[in-house]
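Thread: "does anyone have the structure for this chain?"

Original post by V.I.:
We have the sequence but no experimental structure in hand. Need at least a predicted one for the grant figures.
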Amino acid sequence: MPRKKRRTKQLSIRWRIFLIMMAVSVIPITIFTIYVLISTYSKAYDQTIFNNLNSMSWEEDRLSLFSEELKTSFYTMEFEKSFKKAIVNPWTSDNKSSKMATISDTLVTQLNNNPNFGSIELYIEKGNVNIIAKRSGISPIEAVDISRLFARLEGMQTNMFLKIKDDKLYSVHYVNTFPERKLVAKIAVNLKDKSLREILNIIKAYDTETVFCFNDQYEVLMTEGEVVNQDIMETVVRKIKGSDFAEEYFEVGDNIIISGESDRGIFHVVKIIPKSEILSIVLPTAYAGIFIGLLCVIAAIFLSALLSYYVSKPIIALTNKVKNISTETLIIEQEEYASDEIGILEEHIASFVSQIKDLIQEEYKTKLEAKSAQIQALQAQINPHFLHNTLQLMGSVSLSKDARKVYRIASALSDMMRYSMDYEMDFVTIAEELKHLENYLFIQKERYYDRFSIYYEVEDMAKNCLIPKLLLQPIIENSFQHGFKHSTSNWKLWVHVYLVEEGKVHINIKDNGSGIDQEELLLLNAELKKGYTTLKINKHIGLINVNSRIKLHFSDDDGITIRSELGQGTEVLLVFDGKRTGGNDEDGL
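Reply from O.Q.:
Generated one for you, tokens below.
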């Protein structure tokens, strides 16, 4: 009788109905709440992006106007002839006072006309004259190397750019000669923080946001709002520098980044918006959904408990009856059946149990007969070409009047036929199977005039292990039919039989033939792994039949594996359980 399977622990029908009812009521609410949260968050996210892109567009216009005002101030000074003449022409002791007066008037006038200017510094190349102008007047500055002061990389514009020096924000302009564009002087305007901070503060919507700006050399000039981790700011600047402002917004960690720039990239502005601001919009909806969900869960618990009791009660009664069916006799206890659907089900179950008992016996017998017939059919397949070739060989030898050789060939063939037609003996020892293989190879040697060599390596412990009869000959035949067919070198065969610790016999048969194409090898190994293979005619029927016989006699994990490369030969590995005969059983695997 089949072994009784262990019953896995499961919830009772009452609990399952209860859980189903809970799921039916809670899951829709949960899905709806999650959908609303995701939808609300998505809309809030999109609206935040839209609003900030609009405000950033206005910010870009405002910064562009601010930079134009700075340029105008610089060009106003440079285009004033007396001022330009004063800084271009050489300084002498005679004209120094008049030049200084002209410069002072020009610089102080610009300071008075522009409230955003804190001071103006002028660095003149000729004479190394350095002046700072304040609203109270001008004064000299300590000599500096003008070539290194506010230095720019080659190719960058010098009409107007922003720099930080001594923690102060400067707007810088180079004065050059025309058309040689030789540097004459550098004008640096110290900008008041208030003017730029007012522009940055306008686009801040929340206190938790951060707005900062940097110049065209990606140096941070000013920051407004929450203090941001330095790594985040560096990541943002690096991403903007690499993207060439192809993206107007992107994300870094838990922050949304909105970026913009003024005309010609003099100002770059970045706004960092924490995602927590968007979540604060979504949270009221989330709390409402959770509250409604809790109410539904409480109602579902009560209704599910009540409903599961009334629905499961008759089912549990039927379960107890079916559970008491005798596993040995397959008989259900007879009693009066109810008239409802459960009663009809009980009556039919009793009838089914009786029929199942008869069908089990019949199916068990049929399977045994089918397996026995399949094994015999596989075993009976003998290659008719070999028999034909052997008879032709005997005829050829007979014509040469070598009676002794004809006798040896006939004797070997007779032993092979007797061995293969003994249907009462399904299993033989490996030693007997190898002896049969020697008869086959003797005939092949006579046929091919000793063109091939065979090498045996058989462990003594493996010789008494049982093997299905006629298992090795089809593998060797495959080497002659396919491996050696196109090989011009001396043919070689190796047969290695050994035992492994896992209780398995390994038989490794290898040749030095032409090998198998990799695509064909993959398909063949895949077919061999399928299990019981139907009898079908193809060039590898010998391998397929041997593999099927191993799996039929032993287990699905046993069988054949093939390794091969074109021009390198083929290796066939047979693996099956190692069972020994007679007195060696105590040593068996």
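V.I.: this helps a lot. The domain at 380-587 is CATH 3.30.565.10 (Heat Shock Protein 90).
O.Q.: and The first strand starts at residue 117 and ends at 124.
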